[in-house]
Amino acid sequence: MSSPAPVKKPRPLSPHLQVYRPQLTSGLSILHRITGVGLALGLPVFVIWLTALAKNEKAYDCFLRGAHSPIGQILLFGWSWAFAYHLCMGIRHLLWDMGLFLDIKQVYKSGYAALAISTLLTVGIWYELLV
Fold first, then answer.
1. Helix (H, G, I), strand (E, B) or coil at 1
2. 30 contacts 22 by C-beta, under 8 angstroms
3. In this structure, what DSSP letter does residue 4 have?
4. Angle between helical axes of 70-97 and 24-55 (0-180°, round to 10)
5. pLDDT tens digit string along 73-104?
6. What angle do CA 32, 33, 36 make, to 5 degrees?
7. 128 φ, ψ to 5°?
8. Domain boundaries, the chain
C-alpha cells in the first residue's frame, strides 16, 4: 500500500504584499510613480499660471493670491519636491540603463542619495524664493 500524498499549501498566483516585506527599492519605485502622477495633476496649475501671466495683471494677481494662500504654498512645495525627486530618480534610472550602480549596495546608496538631493534641492529653491 502506498502512503497518501502530502497536502500542499496553496501558493499565491503572483507576488503580493503578504509574501514580500517592504524594501527601500520598492518604496522608492512606488514613490517615483506617485510623484509622476502628482506632477501630471499639477500641470493644469502650471497652464493656469501661464495663462494668467499672458492675460493681464488682474488675472495674474488673482493667481498669486491663490498661490500665496497656505494651501497654495503647501501644493507648490509638494510639487517642487515631487519635481526634484522625479528628476533625481530619472537620472538614477539613466545611470542604471548605462549599467552603472547596479550592485545592491550601490542601489541603496543611490536611493538614499536621490532622497537627500531632492530634499536639499527643494529646500534650496524655497530658501532662495523666501529670502
1. coil
2. no
3. P
4. 130
5. 999 999 999 999 999 999 999 999 999 999 99
6. 90
7. -65, -35
8. 25-130
User: Per the structure block, which three cell numbers stand in for 42?
Assistant: 499639477
For 2-37, write each residue's pLDDT tens digit: 777 778 877 666 666 677 778 899 999 999 999 999
Residue for grid cell 496649475: 45
Question: Residue 6, Cβ neighbours under 10 Å: how many?
Answer: 6
Domain 25-130, what architecture?
Up-down Bundle (1.20)
What is the Cα–Cα distance from 111 to 117, expressed in whole angstroms?
10
Cell of 53: 501671466
pTM, rounded to two decimals: 0.82
Ramachandran sector of residue 83 (left: φ over 0; alpha: ψ -120 to 50; beta: rest): alpha
